[in-house]
Amino acid sequence: MPLAPDAIVRLNLGRLWLSYLKMQIPVHGFLIKHPDGAGLVDTGYGTPLELIKDYRPVNASVADALARHDIHPSDIRWVINSHLHFDHCGQNAVFPQAPEYLQHREWENRQQYETPAAWLEYAGARFELLDGDAEVVPGVRVVTTPGHTIGHHSIEIETTDGPALIAGDACWTVEMFEGKPPQGPMMDDMPAALRSLQRLREVKPTAVHFCHDKRTWMHKTAL
Ligand SMILES: [Zn+2]
Q: What integer pLDDT is reported at residue 164 of this predicted model?
């Protein structure tokens, strides 16, 4: 049963300053209002904020963001992390009851990242490690999109309008989805990243949601 397009709800999880780009970017997670129970894609960055102070983070509680949609953290049945950079998995510990889905390769690579170990390796963490594409709950699949990191995946959601994507960091902006080349230092493996972008376009999505762009790319029906 496909979901309504508005079952994908963007959560504002703060802002980060990228000094090498001299740019502030928003950080988003996504609430998925699934008929079998609510789920979450990415959990933002965690606390204490001093751990990532070079990025000038502002307070951003995922529990507060969910409360604006009348959801309590204990309502969340599952979490998907697109990858394990600190701004995508920092508040996993808020959801001890929920399994966290990510790629096996990403888990094995986690020590390469700046992510504080305490944000991942807390008591009771329940990771479900995947090897490739997988359906997490009916109508919600992960599709592997390596490049930004080795074990990155994006999320494809079946909606009544057609497939919708949550790109994760496989694609940051509307312009990038439409063809603007990604900036080099942000991709661990550029050829893989370009193949992954192409893979996302081949889904022929009706909507693409971004973790670092306030806009949503929408398919424009030809007139
Ligand atoms: Zn990110």
A: 98
